[in-house]
Amino acid sequence: MNDKLDRRNFINNVSLAGVSLAFGMPQVTYGKTTDAKPAILGGPKAHPTSFPSWPIVERPDENALLEALNSKKWGRLNGEAVRSFEEAFKYLSGAKHCLAVSSGTSALFTALGALDIGPGDEVIIPVYTFVATYYVVVLNYALPRFVDTDIESFQVDANQIEKAITPQTKVIMPVHIGGSPADLDTILELGNKHHIPIVEDACQAPMAEWRGEKVGTLGLAGAISFQSSKNLTSGEGGALLTNDTEFAQSCYVFHNQGRNAPNTKLHSRGTNLRMTEFQGRLLLAQMERFKAQVDCRCENAAYLSRLLNEIPGIYPAKLFKGVTKSAYHLYMFRYDKREFQGMDRSKFLVALQAEGIPCSGGYGMLNKEKYVTNLAKNKHYLKIYGEKTMKDWLEQNHCPQNDQLCKEAVWFSQSMLLGSRQDMEQIAQAIQKIRKYAGDLLIFLTKINLLSVDLSKPN
Ligand SMILES: *Cc1c(COP(=O)(O)O)cnc(C)c1O
User: Fold this and answer.
1) How do residues 317-347 score in pLDDT, each as one tens digit?
2) 380 C-alpha vs ligand 1 centroid, how far in Å?
3) pLDDT digits (tens, 9 = 90+) for 221-244
4) What residues does ligand 1 touch, defined as CB less than 6 Å away?
5) 351, 358, 350: which is closest to 437 by C-alpha?
6) What's the CA-to-centroid distance between 29 and ligand 1, angstroms?
7) Dihedral sign from CA coordinates of 58, 229, 326, 243
């Protein structure tokens, strides 16, 4: 970072604050481009530089991969790296057991496999999630039951979980979306009350904390993902956390072709979901900087929230009281077009991108995707559950809060939070500019019909 530049900026900020005090000018004391026009109308970009790219590659990563290569021990059954990574990650997470696997999906699949989830069983999942949460249930021919979203937090509306519970419910699978913990007090209590295991989809949330404890360790098990976009990555990869020793053994056996079972009568299914030594070494090489990155994202996100909370119509996702740390896989907020002269979110996204701020509208409505509604016509599902159940299932898949959220959400990716404080300020300035000129932008963007691509979908 450039110290000089920072100091100059600081002085600018101070004098600007002085000016706005003297003239009774409203808000914004942290920049100098707020009077400029939006980039799309010919003004300068609010964020002219680029955000940190992802993934980050350093010398230890190169060494790790070469060491794995030259060791000629490429699989976990041959080498020690995956086991070492499990030890390190277990220590970081405060879990009793950690099993490294081939992906986050594999981690969820292993947990459901070890629980012997199958046809006739139901699994409760949030509707505001990545499709893997849904498909891992369907892969087991179990019935996914969607629960609507709490619009302010973007998390599952935990108060609506209980009414989704039936005698067939075998697992509740909350997701810590964006890396921020779901309402675990309510969810864990429901699990206890109904004797239903909680499997946390913590794929986006390594190191996030609920009341001082890492998420993924509070239910029976938690799944973490190391896919390319995630906060700690080896391209593909995942981990399963649990404090239950017997369950950990079942998971190991399931992911290792049903082999090495200490108590064979419990196990009848298995597959190969093992992590490679290349992934293990690459992850190990990143552990130190991973911890520093977690703190950096938190600091920047807190600062950005402070700035964005000042802008009418911009509502950063709220954290529940029990959240002591978010992993900030995503920075999420809601955009209310009524505060932007009625300008649609799609136009807001175009204008924000033109300012040099990458952004997306996040998830679409999962319960309305064709590949989800098609389940009601799937021949195996019809055979297992019958036509009436599948018809009812389709009709019950209404999530009005989620529909609303999917129209209002805006996301920034985690790597943007590895930028500087100035980057955060420029994000806020860009949005201020867009709000100030929303009327002009609306006319301009409508006129030139710039929207040939659908920016409401994540890329
Ligand atoms: C990434 C992700 C997964 C799946 O992880 P993969 O490693 O891509 O298989 C599951 N659930 C959520 C919420 C995710 O974000």
Assistant:
1) 999 999 999 999 999 999 999 999 999 999 9
2) 25
3) 999 999 999 999 999 999 999 999
4) 103-105, 129-130, 132-133, 175, 201, 203-204, 225, 227, 238
5) 351
6) 39
7) negative
